[in-house]
Write a structure and sequence with these properties.
The structure is a homodimer of 347-residue chains. With 347 residues, chain A is α/β, with parallel strands linked by helices. In chain A, 31% of the residues lie in helices and 27% in strands. Chain A has helices spanning 41-49, 67-73, 91-105, 123-139, 182-191, 205-215, 217-224, 227-232, 238-243, 264-270, 330-342; strands at 6-11, 58-63, 82-85, 110-115, 118-120, 143-148, 159-167, 170-177, 194-204, 249-254, 258-260, 279-280, 285-288, 294-296, 302-306, 311-315, 319-324. In chain A, the strands form four sheets. The first copy, chain A, has a five-stranded mixed beta barrel. In chain A, strand 2 (58-63), helix 2 (67-73) and strand 3 form a beta-alpha-beta unit. In chain A, helix 3 crosses helix 6 and helix 6 crosses helix 7 (217-224). The relative contact order of chain A is 0.14. At the A-B interface, strand 15, strand 17 and helix 11 of A face strand 15, strand 17 and helix 11 of B. Strand 17 of chain A pairs parallel with strand 15 of chain B, so a sheet runs across the interface.
């Protein structure tokens, strides 16, 4: 059942600065165990994809500064399965490079490209969907993105509008919309035509590289030159650089309990709550008249809170952050202020 | 100038539970350096009284569980100058015992009895006042308490009403009032007859022991029996047991920048504030739209706060407490809840 032509590339080079002070420049969020399950997000992701493609076909691409973290957390991954980006260049160059690498190993490869920081609750449905997606792209030169049926007007996600129905769960894509304002998000949801863009892609290696050659040939040319060439690539996302421009883009409608853990708010959204909608990442919490807070603290630390509503309380060994949970831009601003005023020690 | 008949007893057996989570059962507030000056409250207190009486006449009385803490923090204090209470019995038995001990060393002794957790800002005035007080009690069999001119209707302090003027700063005491409600405190202040009761007492050893023999003879009898006798003493304060009942009580009006660091609020009251009335006990604090907060965190920890007003944020290695700064009874309740639910580890 597991097809040796099927590959997976886990992208793990992000910083996750919106999860500061938990994510740090030397320990981004994908390496953290947010739920106290004993596994970091990247460990969960790796195990998940090993159930979809042969383990020896799972690759991790990350920034060179996270090489040791990947090796520590995924000791079963051989060194030649870790692709190290010399510099940060967003997802388009990252995916082009991984695709060229895999094409040399297997020119027939079908590839799943996936972020390392997603929460997936329904694993059986997930495995079924990905298997169907791989089957689809092995037979048709399409770029496939996985769309998730939305359950709320989330403003932190991108949306995909579906076009004509192809077959089964597969639709042609009409357009992409990035993080809408709340009122607009409500309209999108009500239309019934919009799905969350999961950021998980599936395609045949020839399809994606042909599309790169057509739309962004310079990226292929730069990467062919090796490490220095990679640094010369434009800093551009696969969504903006390829998916929004290509005309062979399809979406597969999925429902496997997906969440993108992009922000503290998204973690609050998916985590178990007490009767007052408070979420805490560990047990020793005493709350008095507290509602709808997100609380993260080190193991063993006792947190006692009174009269707080809609706050994020994130306590680490050397940083305590308390801010409004719904203030989207707050954390980026604070990280920037901390860097300017106090240097790198705290970020 | 320094009189060898003059003694000082520093009382240092309190728990200071209203300063939790900074004060802990094994490290009460008098052993903490709240202001980051390099000296704990008891170290400051000891140095201060060494300028008023001969160093060899300064005694510390504390609970037996704090013996090592006192020895560590006051290594210059010889072992026979530390009196160890076997059990906690409030200030009346504590003072009776210390007085009996000093009487055996010097039956002429004039004794200052002082808590170990006061802040004194004007040291010269302090030394002058105490010297005058010692002179006063050496010549007259009076129980002297130091009264502080109030600058606000503080509800956490006791008040003394002055009666007829004796001489200089000395007045007979009319009555004592314990921690008044705010409206009542305002009335007391406006009358001009009320002073804060500092809890610093001065008397001749014979005067205080004669008063004990008259009003609470059982305490003297129990303590004469030794350690087991001490445990049999009633749990009663010197204020309630002696000062409010004796008829030879005088007050000396003083002004030496005094504060009783009884609560986080009192620390906030006296500490330097930023332009928004925030106080923090260390430097690495970034505040956004925050007003009138009291912030305590370990050295080196960065604290970033947004949209908080009138909160106490007290962060220690294993406890984070965030509560309304003005909720007087909150901390005692929390300490009790923590003890019941989580045991002794956090208190």
């Amino acid at each position: 059942m597991i097809n040796s032509n099927n590959y997976c590339v886990i992208m793990s080079g992000g910083i996750g600065s919106r999860f500061w002070p938990y994510s740090r420049k030397d320990l981004p969020k994908q390496f953290l165990d947010f739920f106290g399950t004993g596994q970091s997000l990247i460990q969960q992701t790796y195990d998940r994809y090993c159930k979809v493609v042969p383990q020896e076909n799972v690759f991790v691409i990350t920034n060179i500064r996270y090489k040791e973290l990947v090796q520590q957390q995924l000791p079963q991954l051989s060194e030649d399965h870790i692709l190290l980006e010399p510099t940060r260049r967003n997802t388009a160059p990252c995916i082009a490079w991984a695709s060229m690498h895999i094409q040399q190993l297997n020119p027939e490869a079908n590839i799943i490209v996936a972020p390392s920081d997603h929460l997936i609750l329904k694993e059986t449905e997930f495995i079924n969907s990905l298997s169907k997606g791989l089957e689809f792209v092995s037979q048709s030169p399409q770029l496939l993105t996985l769309g998730i049926k939305p359950n709320r007007p989330e403003t932190e996600y991108g949306y995909i509008q579906i076009d004509e129905h192809l077959a089964g769960d597969f639709y042609k894509v009409k357009t992409f919309i990035e993080k809408p304002e709340l009122e607009f998000a409500k309209v999108l949801i009500e239309s019934g035509e919009f799905y969350w863009n999961s950021g998980i892609f599936v395609w045949n290696v020839k399809t994606i590289l042909d599309t790169f050659k057509e739309i962004m040939p310079e990226i292929i040319q730069w990467i062919a030159k090796g490490e220095e060439g990679f640094a010369s690539c434009p800093n551009i996302s696969i969504d903006y650089g390829i998916m929004e421009k290509a005309n062979n883009v399809h979406v597969q409608l999925c429902d496997f309990g997906w969440a993108d853990l992009g922000t503290w708010n998204s973690l609050h959204e998916v985590a178990p709550k007490d009767m007052n909608q408070n979420v805490s990442t560990h047990g020793n919490v005493l709350l008095y008249n507290c509602h709808n807070n997100m609380i993260a603290a080190p193991n063993g630390k006792l947190v006692v809170l009174q009269d707080l509503e809609n706050y994020l309380i994130a306590d680490t060994e050397n940083v305590l952050l308390i801010c409004k949970k719904d203030d989207k831009n707050a954390i980026r601003k604070y990280v920037n202020d901390v860097q300017v005023k106090l240097g790198e020690d705290y970020i």
